[in-house]
Amino acid sequence: LLLAAPGATHATAGRLAVHYQPQVRLIDGRLVGAEALLRWQHPRHGWIEPGEFIPIVEETGLIVPLGEWVLRQACAEATGWPSSVRLAVNLSAAQLGRLGLEAMVTTVLADSGLPAPRLELEITETALMHDPDRALACVQSLRALGVGIALDDFGTGYSSLAQLATLPVDTLKIDRSFVAALGREGGGQAEAIVRLIVQLARTMGMHTLAEGVETDRQRAVLRACGCEMVQGFFCSAAVEPQALRVLLAQRGQGV
Ligand code: G
Ligand code: G
Ligand code: MN
Ligand code: NA
């Protein structure tokens, strides 16, 4: 993996690339954003999903330079998108705890020319709870730059409602485990939870985005629940930058 890292030239390690998964607004089907997702193209094993290597990268601390590289790539790419399309980038817990994150984000935005409000940084509930005070200060400083904050995998962590109320979060990303159960036998409980999350988000002035939407049935239930945006295989898997540009040209006016 080290040999696949940016700047390395070892021929057999393959290369890292950033792919983009569309985020679609339910009321009009418009493509309103895209999440940057790291991919490792291995010469023999093909595309390797980050779930398989991000944990290792986090253990070694390599996630800090790699995370910066992803942000740079993605911000540069997003400057070519219509201004109505936002870019979402994942931050790991290790990045969140580091001094200098705010300066790094400021520099990358300035270098790319991407306006801060077009960037949304995704933080998992778990990463926030690791050191809540520090995370809160960090999130506040990022928001002061004008960057949006999304709470990733929401509903799977243990953040209390009191903590949520103090967090300056723009978007709740409803975890795919709830979405997977929607429209299925016994999916009523998941639907009730989704409704509660949407209500909670509204009360706190946050947007809602459901992840892992795979079927039209799920999309319809989510819409009925008042969820604003969806992301998942039903709309599109993460695609290469060029393919996203094609989607934006074709479907930017409605999917
Ligand atoms: O694409 P896949 O489902 O395999 O992604 C698995 C996990 O890897 C997801 O939780 C996703 O948030 C994370 N991930 C993907 N790209 C990045 C990245 O650039 N930085 C960080 N920190 N996590 C990422
Ligand atoms: O945790 P995070 O949301 O950052 O992870 C995003 C990952 O989820 C991506 O790596 C992508 O491969 C995966 N993913 C995207 N859409 C779907 C989907 O509809 N179903 C499932 N099971 N996984 C998805
Ligand atoms: Mn994410
Ligand atoms: Na997620």
TrEMBL record:
Organism superkingdom: Bacteria
EAL domain mapped to chain residues: 1-252
Record's protein name: Diguanylate cyclase (GGDEF)-like protein
